[in-house]
Amino acid sequence: MTDEPIEVVAKIAQNCIQNVPAIVLGSGASIPHQIRGMGPLAKHLIEHVDPVGDEEIDAWTLIRTALANGDGLEEALLGTAAPASLVKKIVHQTWTAIALDDLAVLQRATTAAEAFPLSDMIQGLFKSTASTVHIVTPNYDRVAEYASDVADVVHINGFVPGLIRRREGADTILIRRGNYPARTVRIWKVHGSLDWFEDQHGAVLSLPLSGSIPDGLRPLIVTPGVSKYERTHDEPFRSALQGADTALSAASAFLCVGYGFRDAHIQPKLVERCRQKNVPIVILARTLTDEAKQFLQNSAGRAYLAMEHHDEGTCAYSPDFPKGITIPGHSLWSFDQFNKLVL
């Protein structure tokens, strides 16, 4: 290798961005916006979920014991088949906690007190001839929606425009600005959204920016645990997953931000495209998970770049330095600093 590491990193990164990547946002992309991650969410659930009856109490005791023994929230919930009544309480408290954080982000965004690196990336990608940028995320929060608004770009997340919004259905929405179709961010929320609800008859609707769960409605978010794989066979999750699969299958590149490579609903298409087609992929994370490192080792192809925090700056991984190399003095693993490198 004759080039300096930062030059190698810049070349791979810019190649990825020039291909207008599909963006995959994990929980690590929301944490900088003060959306609580799994640890703080687990603490909230422990403090607020109130099990009633032997079945709920027994299941919740197993979950709390797993958390106390060091399991993460997802592992703890996956390890226990909770009764439906307890799952409902977990969903309710999860929605309540994330919604509180999310609405605080909105408040800061409206006064320009919040910076959105995703907005800068969206604007940068639309300097090309691309008419659509796809974002795939398991996050319930609306950081992607807020970032699109701040970027002054139309976004669509599976529902028609309005305040009481119905599902988009089979006809794709086309929005125009002036005489031309508007450039659009399509957001595929594979585990649901704070906006999504179901009424007592099973009808699905979207109510933006509710501060509490409306009476008679149930939040449509898929929490970690066994029920996660059952719920995603139903609408609107099924359509979101199909849209995400289509977007990922057609992507010419991927940009993953704060994504841990732990989700079976997103993983297969990433693996397929990178391993079989050598599609460029850039991964940004505070700390790469073991699953992310396994992906790099076994499935990332030959056009990958992953960067994580290092005490001296950034640790970068690529085919030129698969075991990682330190780039001192540069926090290139952070979304905003990465933008400065490539935009």
What does this structure look like?
The protein is an alpha/beta fold. Helices cover 40% and strands 20% of the residues. It has 12 helices and 14 strands. The protein has helices at 5-18, 38-48, 54-68, 73-78, 84-110, 117-125, 143-150, 227-231, 237-250, 267-277, 290-298, 335-342; strands at residues 22-25, 132-137, 154-156, 176-177, 180-181, 184-189, 192-198, 204-206, 218-221, 254-257, 281-285, 304-310, 313-318, 321-328. A 9-stranded mixed sheet has the order 3-6-2-1-10-11-12-13-14. It has a 3-stranded antiparallel sheet with strand order 8-7-9. β13 and β14 (321-328) form a beta hairpin. α2 (38-48) packs across α5 and α6 packs across α7. The longest helix is centred in the first third of the chain and has 27 residues, at 84-110. It is globular and about 65 Å long.
Number of helices: 12
Q: Specify Rg, calculated over alpha carbons.
A: 20 Å
Biggest sheet descriptor? 9 strands, mixed
Query: Which ranges are low-confidence, i.e. pLDDT below 50, for 5 or more consecutive residues?
Result: none
What structural class is derived from the secondary structure elements?
Answer: alpha/beta
